[in-house]
Each structure stands twice: as structure tokens, then as C-alpha cells.
Structure prediction request, 308 residues.
Amino acid sequence: MKKRGISLLLTICMIVPLALPSTAYAQVNSEELKQKVDRIEEYEYEYEEIQVLTSENNNSSALNIEKIRSIEEINKKNIEIAKRGVIELDLKSKNLEFIEEACLTELEQLENDTDVVLNEYTVLVPKQKAATPTYFTKYKGRTYYSLVTSRSNQTVQKLKVSNKTKINSWLKNIASIGMMFDSSWVSTISGTVMSASLPSNYRVHNSDWADAYIQVNPKNRAIYAKKNGKFINLVNKEFGPVRPYVVYHANDATATKPTVTSWYSRKNYPNPTPGNSSDLLYNAKAIYDTGASPISFKLNKIVRLRWR
Prediction:
């Protein structure tokens, strides 16, 4: 464990996307080839991972043991730890201030969200000396650059269901909850999965309720442009795997388990590329032209749960 004012967990490794299977290069079909191309596009460098918020120094356990504390309060405390850790890395002295800028922007804009808790935060520092953001694309006559600057673990509370009729409809698959990326449906959170985890012939009580969460593990892609010879951060966009789960609270004295948790299939929000980033580049240009502060498109806001 390395000390920099707070505990930093330092792991040096070559990063590969965990969601993608490793395959031999000798036999590759078209889908495997596409995955390899996506993998190359996702990371520009070999990185040193520096974890500035860990399961050891965060406040996330308070979600379960201190009911009075709000999600927002816990999130703010964790983000303060992460921000302090980013600053204490002193990236400016290594000519990597553009990474610090993107990380602090991401954290500051996550700080005011009331439905998310940041559990872990890792800064990705290129091991290559004199590394800079790499060419991304040209848009409206200006060149833009990008770099993956961080990865994190977040818990997002998206939906609370306390209406007995609605719970019954969900458990019987009469109604369902859908997960969306922006405005597109990507999966269904079926109540029959939860029903199978409850005691047989379980009867819903008036005071039962269910909380729907999403476990989010985003990486942050920062978009830059050059101004006066320096890279300035304009926009950030998070991408990566998300996985919904539901915690059912059974207010039944005979229930052997007061809460039951059901996990659902993981989905992957795509990595920003020049081909899918017209909105991102539009905002980058506007921020560059007006001198406005950088903004972050956060995965906890991109992914949604809605009744279907």
C-alpha cells in the first residue's frame, strides 16, 4: 500500500476490457475481429492504475448500517476522498495536468447527484513518458483528441416500488421494468426472476417494497482540443458495463430472509468513437468557442429504468 496522504492502492498492469473474452489470434471470426478492433480503440496506452477511492477508505458501507444517512451525503464524502487523492497524485508535475482536469471535472459533476454512490475511483496514468491525448477526429475544421482517464464503480438507485398492486403485477410478469440507454430499450427486468427467489406461494404484504439499482462500472473518455499549445478538456463521456439488480423487502414475520436480491444480465454502453459522437463533438465545439466549463455525460444518467 502506497501512502500519498491517503491510502493509494497501486496496481501496474496492462488493461484489457473485462467484458470482452480473450481469443486466440490463430482463429478469428468476424465478431472476434470486431472485438479486437474495439479493444484497440478503447485504450491508447499501457496504464498504471492508481486507486484513490477503495472499499477500505470509502463510506459506502453506511448505506446498509446507517439508515439515517442519505445516499447524497455518502456520495459527497466518497467524492471528497477521491478528489483529494487525484490532487495528491500531483499529475501537473508530470505534465499530465489534462488527466487531472478531466478526473476532477468528472468527480465534481457527479458530486451533486442524489441517486448515486461512488464506491471506487481509479486514475489511469499512461506509463509511457511524455504521453498526450491521441488524435480522435476532425469536426467543423478543428482537431479533437481523446484519452481514457479513469474507471470507477458506482451504485445507482433508480426505482422504488411500494404499491402492492404494482408489485403483484411485476412478480406475475403482467408488468415489467425495462432498462434503457438514453431512449433505447436494452433489456427487461422481469419480476418472475424475483418471484422464483421468494418462498413458494409468497403473499405480498401492504408494507413490502422493492428497490431497483444499477451497478455501473464506467470508464471515462475525455475529449480535448489544443489552445495556446495546451490540451484543454472540453467534454467527458462515460462508457462500460452496467448491471441492474432488485432488492425485495419482505415485511413478513415468517419470512426466513427479510430481503432478497436478484441480479439481471449485464449490458455494455459503447465506447465513444468518431462514428458515434456527433452530439459529443457538437458540445465540445460549443464549449471551445464560448469558453464555458467542461461537462460530463455520466453513465448513471444515461442508463434508466422505466415501467413497460
